[in-house]
Amino acid sequence: MSDRRPAADRPRRAALDVLTAVRADQAYANLVLPQVLRKHGLAGRDAALATELASGAIRMRGLYDPVIDACLTRPRLQEQVRDVLRLGVHQLLSMRVPDHAAISTSVDLVKASVGRGPSGLVNAVLRKVSTRSYDDWVDEVAPDAKRDRHGHLAVARSHPRWVVDALAEALAAEGASDELDALLTADNAPPRVTLAARPGLADVTELEAVGGTRTTRSPYGVVLERGDPGSIPAVAEGRAGVQDEGSQLVALAMADADLDGRDEQWLDLCAGPGGKAALLAAIAAQRGAHLVANERQPHRAELVSSAMRAVPDGTVHVLAGDGTRPPWVPGTFDRVLVDAPCSGLGALRRRPESRWRRAPGDVDVLVGLQQVLLDVAIDSVRPGGVVVYATCSPVVAETTAVVAAVLGRRGDADEVARFQLWPHRDGTDAMFAATLRRRPLG
């Protein structure tokens, strides 16, 4: 008998490669996916299928794993077999793939990637899964919604329980507790690809011409309805970039805040990987201002420099430095953006693995850093200048609580504006931004 393993179809094999890299190598799905697609020569519909399979299986494992476990006669599984089952369950419960196709392709996939041994188990488990709908399985494996609403939603919408609790607190702070299920559901929807036309370098009409639709809030945003953004000349040349509309609005909050006096020196304190900095640099160039884009990690500072390749010379200085120990003189800048390192719980749509990698203790550590960085930002701006504090997280501890703590002990700055965006309301990442003004002297 031949030991040769049968071939699996390329999109499913590519999706399994992504799951393996995320699990075994702690890779980020959005970064490893393009490499895997190139490796398997996938484009168009095949690339879209591989993307949906991988992202969906990673995102929804909080539901799929209990479903798989409910169908097992023995509790332990090889990790790669579980990955194959996650892909199969995603097809059965969340995609329009016929049951027979989802099961047979999963059996072929485990034969090709692991061997013939687990093929019978994969077949049996997926056949059991196929006997019930998504909602029926939720009723089977999730806690009772009336007795434990957050526990039910944690399984039904595949979020860690502590994340559900933190997002519920953030919504409750706005009097919107009834929107929790809508938010968690939106976190599981694939995000739209949104582009930013960097002013003076590209115009939104150029991006509309390749199949884009203008965003409703940012004057520079265009939603790409189809195609590869990297193939668009403006993106390839750095005149435009892939950037969520929420991130664009954060940059605009800094650039457009009312300011008295000079408006010449701008600072992006935590600039990596460079999307907001590139938009700010383009705006600064039009206004005759200069931007310092600071990033602590050298490899991320290189990404910032790459993002600036189309910006006029002399507009930007990219600095690889520790934002908590800045080399510049206090009061140097007129405008400062501190897009602080955060839990990233506002961007769960586009980072499917992040919800499983974060822990409650991470927030406690980050809050201390966020407060230090906001202090530095206020010190760095002149009296009368403005600071925008932003996070890609709606968590109260990282947003309003940080601003309140810093302002409460300083006495030399005031909050003048604030916004919180939400995926389920605004179609953006859950970006938070607070605009502060340093009090004039005297």
Automatic annotation (TrEMBL):
Listed InterPro entries: MeTrfase_RsmB-F_NOP2_cat, MeTrfase_RsmB-F_NOP2_dom, NusB-like_sf, NusB_RsmB_TIM44, RCMT, RsmB/NOL1/NOP2-like_CS, SAM-dependent_MTases_sf
Domain SAM-dependent MTase RsmB/NOP-type, first and last residues per copy: 166-442
Keywords: Methyltransferase, RNA-binding, S-adenosyl-L-methionine, Transferase
Binding-site list for S-adenosyl-L-methionine: 270-276, 295, 322, 339
Coiled coil residues, start to end: none
Residues the record marks as active site: 392
SUPFAM superfamilies xrefs: NusB-like, S-adenosyl-L-methionine-dependent methyltransferases
PANTHER family: NOP2 YEAST -RELATED NOL1/NOP2/FMU SUN DOMAIN-CONTAINING, RIBOSOMAL RNA SMALL SUBUNIT METHYLTRANSFERASE B-RELATED
Protein family per UniProt: Belongs to the class I-like SAM-binding methyltransferase superfamily. RsmB/NOP family.
Protein name per its UniProtKB record: rRNA cytosine-C5-methyltransferase
Organism: Nocardioides potassii
